[in-house]
Design goal:
Layout: H1 2-5, H2 29-40, H3 47-50, H4 57-67, H5 74-79, H6 100-106, H7 108-120, H8 131-137, H9 145-172, H10 178-193, H11 204-209
Length: about 220
């Protein structure tokens, strides 16, 4: 009531609509979009590590959806009444219910893959408990330029290839083998980096077989 007391009505003035989302009280689609982006991208949202030119736009869209917990994992399909099975178990490990963070970060199968790449770079595995935490905390390494370029793209490649592998198992019944997924991740990273000048003369065999050599710190 105290707020209403200070309102002065003027019968001679015409009523008008205003929008509080703009300082000038004028509605625009752009202002709505900007407001939505702020809501979907709080300060801790790794925008620069999602919408990156280091990988295709479709992968960026996938990472964005994964950070927001919206890709079509079993828990999300059940929430939308779109699941074809009553089971909500992770199809990769069959141990716990499948959520976005479980599938891409916590699943025992994907954990082995994260461990492989961390150890190959001589690092102890330190990932977050969620997709967002992993991307926010992902730091560069003091290694060769080739290693830096590979490492920069690695988390996106791991999540993207593991998601594709998961879908191949669910929809095509493909047998999943960790060594094959690791190989495919290396190939994917190389495909995203091979146009970089520092990879001139480097072939895919060197990446697959000699992956560890790219992460040796320069003297």
């Amino acid at each position: 009531m105290s707020h209403l007391d200070v309102v002065t009505l003027s019968p001679s003035s015409q009523d008008q609509l205003i929008w509080l989302g703009d300082k000038n009280w004028i509605f625009s689609v752009k202002k709505v979009y900007d407001s939505a982006v702020v809501l979907d991208n709080p300060p801790s949202f790794p925008s620069s590590k999602v919408w990156s030119k280091a990988w295709p736009h479709k992968v960026g869209f996938f990472l964005w959806q994964a950070c927001l917990g919206r890709i079509a994992t079993m828990d999300n399909l059940h929430k939308r009444n779109m699941a074809l099975s009553s089971s909500s178990l992770c199809p990769m490990c069959n141990g716990l219910d499948e959520s976005v963070d479980h599938l891409l970060v916590q699943c025992s199968i994907v954990s082995n893959i994260w461990s492989y790449f961390f150890h190959s770079a001589g690092r102890s595995i330190v990932t977050g408990r969620s997709v967002r935490e992993v991307l926010v905390s992902w730091k560069g390494l003091d290694i060769s330029e080739q290693g830096k370029q590979l490492w920069r793209r690695l988390p996106a490649a791991i999540m993207w290839v593991f998601w594709l592998s998961r879908n191949a198992k669910v929809f095509s019944g493909k047998e999943i083998k960790v060594p094959d997924i690791i190989r495919d991740i290396k190939i994917q990273v190389f495909n995203w980096t091979k146009s970089h000048s520092c990879f001139s003369g480097v072939n895919i065999s060197s990446i697959i077989v000699g992956w560890d050599q790219f992460f040796i710190r320069p003297p």
